[in-house]
Amino acid sequence: MAAERVPDATVSRLVTYLRVLESLERRGVVRTSSEQLAEEAQVTAFQVRKDLAYFGSYGTRGVGYSVPLLKRELRNILGLSRRWKLAIVGMGRLGQALADYPGLGEVFEPVGFFDVDPAKVGKRLSRGVIEPLANLERAVSERGVEIGLIAVPAEAAQEVADRLVRAGIKGILNFAPAVLETPPHVPVENVDFLAGLARLTYFVSRNVGEEWVG
Ligand code: NAD
User: Fold this and answer.
1) CB of residue 133 inside a 6 A radius of ligand 1
2) Which one, out of 1, 26, 186, 198, has a CA that is 20 to 30 A from the CA of 214?
């Protein structure tokens, strides 16, 4: 692993580079360059080289990068070369959509689905059955769950996070519009499509405004 602390923005770009490499591979490309990666990832070639340099050099001067090799390295760095067991808490509209999502692929395996609503408990899903929240702690330890997905209403999210932390979860993906507090050894990633929409409407309204002015 890198000795230097890797900036969060670099980690985000590594995910983008991996997507680019997967796309290149689908197109039959076996060698690439920092220039090509940069163009497809919409960053500069300098940025690509700097990001990859945190983890050692994967390119050969004048020859560039092997697509399958760099893809494998990035998957290793991102922790995607092994399986991760997930628990989903909050099995409403979002939780059920996540639970059935085929894109979780080989890497992410949901092994527990929890809700407080007795009307939902017992419902069969493509990958399991919805269980009462009371089963959460035991399921996390007995099934080796490492990542918790929170899809409960905002007001219940911190309490669910606390329970997941106490149960020994290693990381949380939070979909609820709430700022969660966890100990430093339990990282939280927030996913918020409304925040994405708000950024988009900022740029769209600015463009629209420019047209009106111009
Ligand atoms: P929903 O009302 O359909 O589902 C919420 C579920 O959580 C219900 O089944 C409810 O019984 C359950 N629940 C409530 N308290 C609980 C607790 N303490 N423990 C376990 N389960 C509990 O809501 P939804 O539309 O599925 O949205 C779920 C959450 O995700 C909300 O916080 C919403 O704001 C958020 N959301 C985020 C995004 C995003 O992009 N991040 C998108 C949609 C919704």
Assistant:
1) yes
2) 198
